[in-house]
Amino acid sequence: MNHCFITGTDTGVGKTYVTALLLAELRRRGVPAAAMKPIACGADGRNDVRQFRALMQNEVPLDRLNPVYLRHPLAPSVAAKLEHRPINLRRIRADFRRLTAAYSPVLVEGAGGLLVPIKRNYFIADLARELNLPVIIIARLGLGTLNHTLLTVRQAQATGLIVRGVILNDLTGRRGLAEKTNIREIPALTGVPLLGVVPHRARRIPTVILAKM
User: Fold this and answer.
1) Burial classification of residue 90, based on how many CB atoms lie within 10 Å of its CB (0-12 exposed, 13-18 middle, 19 or more buried)
2) Model-level pTM?
3) What are the residue numbers of the active site?
4) Residues facing residue 36 across a β-bridge
5) Which letter does DSSP use for residue 33 in this model?
């Protein structure tokens, strides 16, 4: 498994949850993996990074795993404007290089979806492209995911990103008709691989997902 950028179809689809499961399983297998969140907005975002750091046995300073922290739980460009703080992209790039020199793979978790603004005319998708990372898309399993996933895949491809695949996250534990058919329809409609489904409240990432990655 190589370095990758983990994004979502929306806020709250489980990017951090899936990233942490992946990191924990890789570490359990003895793989020198790391995870970073270049931009975290709000206390919950910072706590996400603390979770990654704990899974890495606190080997790396928190600020290297999260180079940009903004207090307000808003889009980075909005939070930065409110706090009168420029977002330091140079620092993000430098910390990413330092991590990739010591760890492999490095999982980079974005903020929200691909079109969340970081600066004027610069979005999360642009950061993934600048870091030259393929994208893994986390999507909810249930109703509505076809539209959100198609939009995200098409935006990624329009930006010039390679989409490694989609992971569906079961947020509710319900397996109705939408959930059952989405597993078939996502790869058929998007043309990208379905890497697997994360069960509701899973404690470990399914082996099939790591095998496909």
Assistant:
1) exposed
2) 0.97
3) 37
4) 108
5) -
